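Input chain follows. Return structure tokens only.
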Amino acid sequence: MRMRILSAMMLMVVCICGSLGTALAGHKGKVRLAYVEWDCATATTNVARAVLEEKMGYDVEILPVAAAAMWAATASGDVDGMMAAWLPVTHSSYLKRFSKKVVDLGPLVTGAKIGLVVPDYVTIDSIGELGSHAGKFSGRIIGIDPGAGVMAKAEKAIEDYHIKGMELMEGSGATMTAALSDAIKHHQWVVVTGWAPHWKFGRWQLKFLEDPKGVFGKAENIHTVVRKGLSTDKPEVYRFLDRFKWTRNNMETVMAWDQEPGANRYENAKRFVREHPELVDSWLK
């Protein structure tokens, strides 16, 4: 009888502790972050979620949306913020439209850019050299979806640099990286529309072709942008998001992990947090 009572009491303690642990995991309330489903934004947002949940005790909801919806949701207060604002060029129209309703916390990573990318064993260095080596590239620039900004810039580059014998091929991010992978495997010349940060830079040795005419624009930064009032009603979250800074190499490391077969992006984010305690501590001071 005594053993049954002790067993029942122990079970009750386990249940209470389990329930308490679950409650404490989000005891500080909920944080909502919007992001566009780009690999860079997904990696960043999941790492932020890992810190907010595992280190700070918040319950975090991350919401994948289109870029316009991401900005609108932040401006309206439907979400607390986003970590995927490409500035000063790509998202400049959104910042201008919503500037009075959001707070720009500045860059979380610098040196973001778009352009034409080749493996580092390709011996040309400039976009202007593509035409004279069109045969080695099989007359193709491997692109992504036709509505992407980098595709419009690539078309303009073909015109402005008078590139003959090269055609811009439409596709997707997946078909672009598949073509790049196959060419590198066989040590063939290939040129693709590219942007950084991107996981491909964490997997292969690549380089942007120089763009002396500035068709693709200057390097950009990726900013954190939050809703008005966050600093007042969630000051700890605001401070963390304001201090979150990392490098392209950091980001591309996580992005490369995310491309591994069977990868769990949130588990990869938690792995990064575990393996970089000093960096994480700098975000929490």
